TrEMBL record, chain A:
It is found in: Cell membrane. Its main location: membrane. Residues 106-295 form the ABC transmembrane type-1 domain. This is ABC transporter permease subunit. It comes from Actinomadura physcomitrii. The chain crosses the membrane at residues 43-65, 110-130, 142-163, 169-188, 219-241, 275-294. Residues 1-25 are annotated as: Disordered. It is a multi-pass membrane protein. It holds the Pfam family BPD_transp_1. The keyword Transmembrane applies.
TrEMBL record, chain B:
GO terms for biological process: peptide transport; transmembrane transport. It comes from Actinomadura physcomitrii. The keyword Nucleotide-binding applies. Belongs to the ABC transporter superfamily. GO terms for molecular function: ATP binding; ATP hydrolysis activity. Keywords: ATP-binding, Nucleotide-binding, Transport. Residues 17-263 form the ABC transporter domain. The lineage of its organism: Bacteria, Bacillati, Actinomycetota, Actinomycetes, Streptosporangiales. The keyword RNA-binding does not apply. This is ATP-binding cassette domain-containing protein. NCBIfam families: oligo_HPY.
UniProtKB/TrEMBL annotation, chain C:
InterPro entries: AAA+_ATPase, ABC_Ni/Peptide_Import, ABC_transporter-like_ATP-bd, ABC_transporter-like_CS, Oligopep_ABC_C, P-loop_NTPase. This is ATP-binding cassette domain-containing protein. Belongs to the ABC transporter superfamily. Signal peptide: none annotated. Residues 339-358 are annotated as: Disordered. The lineage of its organism: Bacteria, Bacillati, Actinomycetota, Actinomycetes, Streptosporangiales. Keywords: ATP-binding, Cell membrane, Membrane, Nucleotide-binding, Transport. Its main location: membrane.
Amino acid sequence: MSVIAEAPDTAAGAGRDSGPRPSRWRTGYRTAIRGLGVLRRRAGVVGAWFWLMLIALLAVLAPILPLADPAVPVGTPNLAPGARWPEFMGTDQLGRSVLSRLIDGARPSLMVALISVGLALVVGGMLGLVAGYRRRHAERVITVFIDATLAFPPLMLLMALAAVLTPSLWTLGIALAIVFAPSFARLARAATLRLASQEFVLAARSAGASRLRVMIRELLPSVVVPLLSYAFVVMAMAVVAEGSLSFLGLGIPPPAPSWGGMVASGRDNLREAPLLVFIPAAVLLLTVLSLNAVGHHLQQRTGNARGANL
Amino acid sequence: MAGTGKAHLRRSDSVVLSVEDLVVEYRLKGSGDRVHAVSGISLDVLAGETLGLVGESGCGKSTTARAVLGLPRPTSGSVRFDDVEVTTLSEREMRRFRPKAQMVFQDPIASLNPRRTVEDVVAEPSRIVASGTRAERREKVRTVLREVGLDPDVMGSRRARQLSGGQCQRLSIARALVLDPDVLICDEPVSALDVSVQAQVLNLLGDLSQKRRLSMLFISHDLAVVKNVSDRVIVMYLGKICETARPDPLYARPAHPYTAGLLGAIPVPDPGIDPRGRRTVQGEPPSPINPPSGCRFRTRCPFAQKICADEEPEIREIDDNHYVACHFPLTHAAAA
Amino acid sequence: MTRDGSRGTASSAEPERLLEVTDLQLRLNSPRGPVYAVDGLTLTLDRGVTLGLVGESGSGKSMTCKAIMGLISDRRGTITGSVRYDGTDLTRLPLERRKELWGTELAMVNQDAGTALNPVLSVGCQLTEGLRWHLKLSKREARDRAIELLTHVGIPEPKRRLGQYPHELSGGMRQRVNIAIALSCGPSLLLADEPTTALDVTVQAQILDLLADLQDEHRMTMILVSHDLGVVAGRTDFTAVMYGGRIVEIAPTKDLFAAPRMPYTRALLASMPRLTAPSHTRLRATPGAPPDLTKRVPGCRFAPRCAFARDRCRSEEPPLVDETGSGHLFSCWYPDSGTPEETGATLATSGQTLKEDA
């Protein structure tokens, strides 16, 4: 919008006489560049949403789509893409359909991301809310917990958990949730602190609202907004983490497909069939980029809205 | 100045709110210094009366208001609504008591939850108290909105950020009135508003207090505003009461040097008066972390003597219903 | 605005014109579209004169100051019209040239003394910066001059203050430091934008006195912006009332308060609670709210709230004219509308004011 508002101004300015013309021209140029940036960002966000919807839709519909069984060979191994329909992405080293495995592999990746982020959001958000509003003892206990968790190297934590627990969607999700929860708690606490000092909280208290009611009805609706937009960014981290863990063999056990696992198993004959690594890696990359783009966009929007209201 | 004493309290049956020896102190985070925000304030409000509380920033007027509501509870002292001591009530009992006193705040935006519509803002208190059926509550909300001059059909579904400052304050007043409180505490309710809008809100408050026979504790730094709405005025300085009287005699014949200086410092919209020729107060208020001994105003008082540092003046009646806490109150022959 | 001879203060026979603002328009960019913050403002000021600029929030008074200073970046908005300062049109000067004038010719004191100072630099550092840059003083000279300035604005222990940081000072002290910084390079025009709004009344009186003293001493021209008619009344030669981005009435201060002609000025005066009026005096409130500056509607901007508006007011914008030739300009088709006691009352009460505590 700033572009539209400013363009005529610079045009009007350029029409005037006297010295400052080069600088005005430069401003116009800068405006134009900024305009391109805005457009690109918008297009990026739209594309990101589109990609995420597509992946989510395919993952959900995977069982009913007319695809080959991802665990069973359908043809010769290492078939190049485009050679066969509907397995247009070719086959892997065991002759299983890459397309089926990609789509099926989206399910654990996204499930782990959803479980971990969902748990982290709820638990971390609640802890942060309580720490921000109750202060004193609750705050002290929770901040110590947050700091302790943040101080523990996440990879070690994950590997330790993977060693103790049998890897599954849920154990992975819970392990990652433990890693992510402190950041949500911190964010929630900061948002709560900012809101709790506002007079509408005092107004609710003076009408006889209990502290619990204040937290749920007055604070929570506003605290949740920044948390949700942050959740997308963390979801990107979760997808990466799941991929890395599967790559290291700590993720979902084979033969169930997952993106990280596909990269890991394709790595052995990278020279002959580079696409076996490249395709899942590209899908992973696009998904993570999209999640980040959407998350940043939402953060910006809610941030602006906050600035306008408060 | 140093209002110890309770000589100005009234022994009347119609006292709705009575505060005695209210003390609020808290420690600063970090340094741990003790802030003496309110140091022994006593006041009372009669039914249907508006008590104005005036003073400069840091004098403890807002802290007093919040302590009266128990948000947070005072360090010591007593607060009684209709002869019920509320400082000793449990959290649960206190909650049931809260609807009796409601508050209107200074910041028109921050005092409204940005995620609520106008109707929701007003409906929330009655939901908390859970009085009446849903339909009754809704009707009540609409009545109160109309009472403060907001059309529920037009404004009802808007959000706070879509309202002007004046409309926000009307909404805050509606929210405070929906529980039919006995006492309305207004903490700088018009300070953030422009004069033309300020006049609307002041007139509204005046009408409401009359129509509902509402007792009000009206807090402001603006002496002209306080004079306009109050039946009685208390002047505060650094956590203490300096002087209290009915507004007309107080403004015409201030007895405390601080009151006189404060009145002299107010800019008047009359070019015929040279602001340089008026009595005002020099210097800046001392820190409430380490308030002066004796009379707290002595460090800025032109008439301060040794006794002012040694002995805290006690509040006493110098004229009918005119009380002052000063060793050397101004007599009006001398001031003229 | 100023007219020869109408000034009370003694001055040379030919008053020097310092500032001439012609048809100044400031259009700010906002997400909701252009905001006409200042809309066709014309003003002249002679040397040594004080002009009070009053209006409610959003009337454009602060933006007028910023536009005169040239503090609006191309990104934030566009300025049209001209601001002639001592003969040069500031709006056409490149930024580099304007920067040279800031501090040495034009200076500004803001409302928010806290944020106007850099929190991580010491008072001394901020005070000497301008001195060293504009006046090319040595470090030693700048320091001596800074101590002198701080003493001048009434700050005790100036030497110690130089090493202090803004957060160690009270609001009043910070504003004094701001004034010292503004005056450090001897500007001819001081724009004081609500310099005392954030301060307590007792401190406000001290700061306003200080500004008046300094102005007399340096024969500075000053624009004192305030939302409070009281602040302007005793301390200015001329008063301009702004509404909706325009000046709606401007006159020698005494004339304006004695006989306001424009209904908005009267409404403003009538809606102020007075110290002299008895308690519970009903205030004359103006209904409605100030105009939305993103929309430009025909006619007088005050018409929607004006009790005396007629058809012409809603269709045709009244010009700012001097009907009587007395230097009292106002823009209203039907001046002096309303009952005589409405204006009479405010004046009668303010006339007998405060004699008792003077």
